[in-house]
Amino acid sequence: MSAPADRGVAALRAAGIAADVRRFDVPVPTAAVAAEVLGCAVGAIANSLVFDADGAPLLVLASGAHRVDTAKVAALVGAARVRRATPEFVTAATGQEVGGVAPTGHPAPLRTVVDVDLAAHPLLWAGGGDHHTMFSVTYTDLVRLTGGEEAAVA
Question: What does the pLDDT read at residue 12?
Answer without folding.
Answer: 86
